[in-house]
Amino acid sequence: MGLLLELAAGGLIAGGIYAVVAMGLNLQYGLMRIMNISHGEFLMLGAYLTWFAHTTFQVNPLLFLPAAAGLLFLLGLAVYGLCFRRIVRTAPSLEVIEARSLLVGFGLMFLVQNAVYLAWGADLQGYSFLTQPVEIAGARFGANRLLVFGFAVGASLALLALLRWTLVGKAVRAMMQSPTGAQLVGIDTGVLHPVVFGAGLALAGVAGALLSMVYVISPSMGEPYTVTALIVITLGGLGSAAGCLVGGLLLGLVEAFGMHYANPSFKMLLSYGVLIAVLIARPQGLFKR
């Protein structure tokens, strides 16, 4: 039972991070069809900023979470204005937006990676934070891992509440359902687009800050999380924030138990297997209504 709890906890912790990353990308892609393939690089940037603040200025990583979100939000506003605003305004169709943003995203991916290489080098980095064990029902967990899971789920639930019960959230959901209809009822897309794009990068920054508390980090760590986010979006359904949360947790559990009972090298094979099965059985996503 202790082993099963440890496996489930490990899967849920990873799944919580997956959910936060996927929600950020889902906001951008679901609202504006911007395929920001560099999304994971901004997660990596959030992790490095948290590591730098903690190791250089002894800032508590938990206290740095709002700063990481705020910095990545401002960076998201700048990135949208410089790289994606013109694409969204001038593209004749959603398919063109997807294709052009994909190419821009590749350029951003290499730009951010190399900027981090120049700033902090290519070596693995990390720090020790709340590593003391906590025993629950006969299983032992690192305190930092439990905190990461709690904050990841909390951030996801906060976004769900914002989308469901606030005026801004209703505007975002309206634009996801019908961009033309949203504009007809007076929703200002010129303001909403950069704000939502920035919010997506803010979520990536939070996910990176949480990751830095439990894993070593490197400039190349972002790309796998972008792929995983796309798998979670497919699993949960495009535009479904709740689907991202449940899909992320489910994928984390599948990976944790699959790697234990099969082989640790099968991690990506398991993820792609889930993706292919969902695309065949329910291409609109498991939780998309």
Polypeptide structure, described:
- With 289 residues, this protein is mainly α.
- The protein has one domain: ABC transporter involved in vitamin B12 uptake, BtuC.
- It has helices at 2-32, 39-57, 61-90, 94-120, 143-165, 167-177, 179-184, 189-212, 222-236, 241-261, 267-281; strands spanning 133-136, 139-142.
- The protein has a two-stranded antiparallel ribbon.
- β1 and β2 (139-142) form a beta hairpin.
- α1 packs parallel to α5 and α5 crosses α6.
- The mean pLDDT is 88.
- Number of strand segments: 2
| Rg from alpha-carbon coordinates | 19 Å
Percent helix among the residues? Answer: over 70%
Query: Any idea what the shape is?
Result: globular
Number of contiguous helices: 11
CATH architecture: Orthogonal Bundle
End-to-end gap: 36 Å
Strand pairing plus helix content: what structural class? mainly alpha
Low-pLDDT residue intervals, each spanning 5 or more residues: none
Order of helices and strands: HHHHEEHHHHHHH
What order do the helices and strands come in, and which of them pair?
Elements: H1 2-32, H2 39-57, H3 61-90, H4 94-120, E1 133-136, E2 139-142, H5 143-165, H6 167-177, H7 179-184, H8 189-212, H9 222-236, H10 241-261, H11 267-281
Antiparallel strand pairs: 1-2
Helix pairs in contact: 1-5, 1-8, 1-9, 1-10, 2-3, 2-4, 2-8, 2-9, 3-4, 3-8, 5-6, 5-8, 9-10, 9-11, 10-11
Short summary:
This protein is about 75% helix and about 5% strand.
Can you tag this structure with a few keywords?
single chain, 289 residues, mainly alpha, ABC transporter involved in vitamin B12 uptake, BtuC, two-stranded antiparallel ribbon, 11 helices, 77% helix, globular
